Amino acid sequence: MFIVVTLLDKHIKEFLELYHNFRLVDSNRKHIATLQGTITIVDENNQIWSDYDIRIEISHAYPYTIPSIYEESKLIERDWEFHISKEGKCCLDIHHSMLLKRRKGISLINFYQNVIYPFFANHQYKVNEGSYANGEYKHFEKGIIQYYEEELDLTDRDYILKLIDSAILGTKYARNNTCTICGSPKFKKCCLPKINKLTLFGKDQLKTDYGIFASLSIN
Amino acid sequence: MSVFNPYLNVIKKAVQQDPKLRQRLFSAEQEDSAFDTSYIKALRNELPNSKSLNESVSLIKGMGAPVFGDLPELGNHPDFKHLRYTDETEDHWIISGFIDVKDSTKLFNRFTKATVALITEGIVQASIFAVNLCDGYVHRIQGDGLMVYFGGKNKDKTESVKNALKAFAMISYFVKNDLKDFFAANSVTEIFTRAGLDLGHNSQVRWLYSGSGKAGEVTTCSLHTSLAPKMQSNAVSNGIVVGQNMVNLMAIRKYFTEKRNPIWEYGDGRTYSQYDFNWDMYIMDNGLGVQDRYGNIVLTMGNSEPKQSLDKTYLAPIAKLNKPYFCL
């Protein structure tokens, strides 16, 4: 019998060989692989902060997917201030950041070390210090506006709408011509890089973003 | 605080104060006698004594940890010391273990021999601590290596197997993690342990006094005592190889991977297998350690309760990688 070993199988095996507190509990349900285990928050001075029991669900679209993380030990208060649903699903980061990761493809171990683990470390930080170490995104639409401000350096709503519109439509402009959006002499040096960056979020997210910024313009 | 910190701290001081290391960039090769190494004696006195050993033990929870008195003398196992100076023998099961530090000779290229001696002494004493903590007995010290026994009269064989695995896992952890991190940070060549362990049953082990007059020791004559150093030589860096008899007593086999070649052929078609022991998995499964973000083990010996006062300075770099958003 010929057994196909997928990239997900391979990466789960490598993950379980490295992290002994996790186990594979289900690999077939609705095309989702489920890992369960305990994550211990140990800081850079080997101080132990806390343990969380978590569940990691990974779609078989791996590596072009974002795993869902559930906190099962209920150590995180089920309150939106802690970025967690009533069912324990953790909001690890803003959609846009996750979409970029998904587009590029993730590696399970890298995702655990740089996304999952820091989320729980940051919860410990908030519990002990009263706020998150690196701030947090505001809820819902305000968080997306904040992302455009902080990560893309975009604050002008009308300008943002034009950029998003161009990204959605995929309008082709000559790179060396005058920019029709901002009027600068060369399109390739002003708005093109920004449009290219927005395009990476995909049309669905851009349409959502457009709606958010458009409603702000009306108001 | 790690149970091995008292040893690590002395080794750190010895390395940092070593005159040969400090001057190597500025001077030609010099004899050790050109350096003042009088500080070494004071450092040596900082290695834990019985009293401070017990302070380390008090950090450990759930181990059934013994209180250290005077450690038993070498070459005279307490349960078989009646054989000393006699020609009597006794058959009794025992676990024999060998562990040593490989590539430690390279240390002579970097340090004065006084420092090398103290580094070696620190590792040996840390190993003796681990062995005694796990109810083992140090039979012989061979430079930077140890020959040890686990088990004896009125002891449970399976528990002794677990204790032997635990002690050797602790020593391997100390050299692979605590020492390696420090040496790497100071550009010191990597050193590592190799270990072998095997169990001989009652019919396979003979205890006797070997030697002449006072020049002798109470020791074992057993195929399995002889196989342990052979297994040690087959271990990978920081690896522990154990014999079939030990694996047979363990209910959980996932920690052991059979090596392709058996360690012994009896000559009648039967063979005796050797196994690589996944000691970091064993440490984790038995609650003796936790893993950090990168999977590195932090030895807790079962005492992983968070401390009352934690310094956020060391948590912040990890926490800052996250910026949460409520999106559901």
UniProtKB/TrEMBL annotation, chain B:
<dbReference type="InterPro" id="IPR029787">
    <property type="entry name" value="Nucleotide_cyclase"/>
</dbReference>
<protein>
    <recommendedName>
        <fullName>Adenylate/guanylate cyclase domain-containing protein</fullName>
    </recommendedName>
</protein>
